[in-house]
Design goal:
104 residues, two-stranded antiparallel sheet, mainly alpha
C-alpha cells in the first residue's frame, strides 16, 4: 500500500523548523519565545514551547583546563592500550611461527 506522505529531506540538515514544516505542516519559526503554544498538524495537536537562542561563549583557559587534562589522559590511555595490544599480537605471532618451525 502506497501513501502520499512526503518524506523529510535527506542529509544531515540542521534546519529543524523547515523540516518540521515539511513533515508536520508546522511553522515553528513563528512560535513566540518562552510561551507554550498549541499547534495543530495533520497528525493531531502539539504543545510547543520555544526558548530564545543564546549566544555561546568561549571558556577561559582555567575553565577548559580540567576537560583538556581529561581528554589528554584518555588519549594517552587509548594509545597505551593500542601499543600493548599490538605487542601481544606480535608476541603471539612470533610464538606461533616458532611453534610451526619446531613442528617441521
Amino acid at each position: 500500500m502506497k501513501t502520499n506522505v512526503p518524506l523529510p529531506p535527506a542529509g544531515n540538515s540542521l534546519d529543524k523548523p523547515a523540516r518540521a514544516k515539511e513533515t508536520l505542516g508546522l511553522a515553528l519559526a513563528d512560535v513566540p519565545d518562552n510561551r507554550p503554544v498549541l499547534l495543530k498538524s495533520r497528525w493531531g495537536w502539539h504543545l510547543v514551547e520555544a526558548s530564545p537562542v543564546k549566544k555561546g561563549k568561549m571558556p577561559s583557559y582555567e575553565e577548559a583546563l580540567p576537560a583538556l587534562r581529561d581528554a589528554a589522559r584518555s588519549l594517552r590511555k587509548a594509545q597505551a592500550v593500542g601499543l600493548y595490544m599490538d605487542g601481544l599480537f606480535e608476541e603471539a605471532h612470533l610464538r606461533n611461527r616458532i611453534k610451526n618451525k619446531q613442528g617441521r
